[in-house]
Amino acid sequence: MKIHEYQAKQFLARYGVPIPPGRVASTPDEAAMAAKELGTRVVVKAQVHVGGRGKAGGIKLADTPEQAAAAAAAILSQPLKGLRVDRVLVEAALDIAAEYYVGVVLDRNARKHAVMMSAMGGVDIEEVARQSPEKIAKAWPDPLAGLADFQIRDMIYDAGLQRSLAQQIASVARALYQCYIACDATLAEINPLVVTSDGAVVAADAKMVIDDNALFRQPELAALRESADEHPLELEAFRRGLQYVYLGGSIGIIGNGAGLVMATIDEVKLQGGRPANFLDIGGGAKADLVANALELVLMDSDVRGVLLNVFGGITRCDEVAKGVLDAAGRVGLRVPMVVRLTGTNEEEGRAILSGSDLVPAETMQEAAEKIVALVGGA
Ligand code: GDP
Ligand code: MN
To answer: Are 353 and 324 in contact (CB under 8 A)?
Structure first.
């Protein structure tokens, strides 16, 4: 889950990252008021979950409250990269001498968090990583010991950051790392970390992505979740407590176990079908759970068939079959559905389905072939 710049800055400030004084505004009048209160030249920044706002016209400097109002009016009146702008951040403008980059990101390959620093801040850091990776210094903190001082010193040296600012940069890096860990983030970056002409180090921009799977223990962050930038079906899945990913095809896929669901998606694609979604209902397949899952999948009006792939281990296949029949009846299934049952009591399970409209299948391949045929190609 992404949070807005002004929200990320509030969290970073709690951990000791210096941020410019600022106010959030949702109208031009509020922006003018904010600029008046700040009493300096301001920068008016669109608050949307997308980067590169500067280049897209979402960031404007204003010398007076009147200019701030005009800037806010312009930014709020049109979508930025397709996203509606509801709020702007009005912040004291900085006198920029240099723009650095500092970030923390989950490095799945290293199975650790990676901290990065670069003197090439302000610009698109992914571009720097592609064109000149040596310009980005990295360290992988020990997960228990945290970010060590020697790692910070090495990065400041390797990235060629100004040595006289080492204390200030180190303090920002430590605070950023602490905030990242405490918030269960998978990304926290300051780009640019501005060096002002009088030698102060300030976070001019902030971006944070929070691990969705940690939101249960991050109520303050979970409350910042916004429906606008999520797929409505994924949001509905979140409400229903289901592990669902929208894929945009015509064949609904439900299975128990993430690996099994992914394999099913592959098989359907191999047979020429287009999976509409990923949906893992986890262990077992009780009628309530299957009904909940089926209802969700059928909310997608593009779905013209459903493939349910269940491995009956602890939950026996005959119980699963009864649950599935019950669920199909309850939701008023309007499209063909193939059910592949394997595991304990699979024959009994298939026998239960045989008198119904549901199409039983023995293997995953057979199930995929059948649903693709029933849906009628792509
Ligand atoms: P982004 O384009 O969405 O990444 O937004 P940023 O907050 O990073 O702003 C983009 C650029 O605006 C920065 O790299 C600065 O070069 C420029 N800029 C100029 N003056 C200011 C200022 O006073 N504050 C901030 N934040 N950016 C400024
Ligand atoms: Mn930026």
So the answer is: yes
Residue 235: the pLDDT is 85
Q: What pLDDT does 155 receive?
A: 98
Which pLDDT value is given to residue 378?
52
HSE of 90, CA atoms in CB hemisphere, 13 A: 34
* Under-70 pLDDT residues of the chain: 227-229, 284-285, 377-378
- Whether 192 is in the pocket of ligand 1, judged by its Cβ within 6 Å, is yes
Taking the CA of residue 50 as reference, the ligand 1 atom at the shortest distance is 3
Identity at 84, one-letter amino acid code: R
Pick among 2.60.120.1060, 3.40.50.300, 3.30.470.20, 3.30.565.10: CATH of 1-20+95-229: 3.30.470.20
21-93 domain in CATH 3.40.50.1910?
no
Q: What is the pLDDT, as a whole number, of residue 377?
A: 60
Q: CB atoms < 10 A from the CB of 75, how many?
A: 24
What is the SS3 string spanning 109-175? Answer: CCCEEEEEEECCCCCCHHHHHHHCHHHEEEECCECCCECCHHHHHHHHHHCCCCHHHHHHHHHHHHH
Question: Which residues lie at CB < 5 A from ion ligand 2?
Answer: 191, 205
- pLDDT at 284 (0 to 100): 64
Q: Name the strands in the sheet holding 305-312, side by side, starting at the edge strand that comes first in the sequence.
A: 243-246, 277-280, 251-255, 305-312, 337-343, 359-361
Given 6, 30, 100, 101, which residue is catalytic? 101
Q: What pLDDT does 252 receive?
A: 98
Is 65 close to ligand 1, i.e. is its CB under 6 Å away?
no
**Cα(136)–Cα(58) distance, rounded to whole angstroms?**
27
Torsion sign over Cα 284, 362, 237, 263: positive
Give the pLDDT confidence score for residue 367 in this predicted structure.
Answer: 97
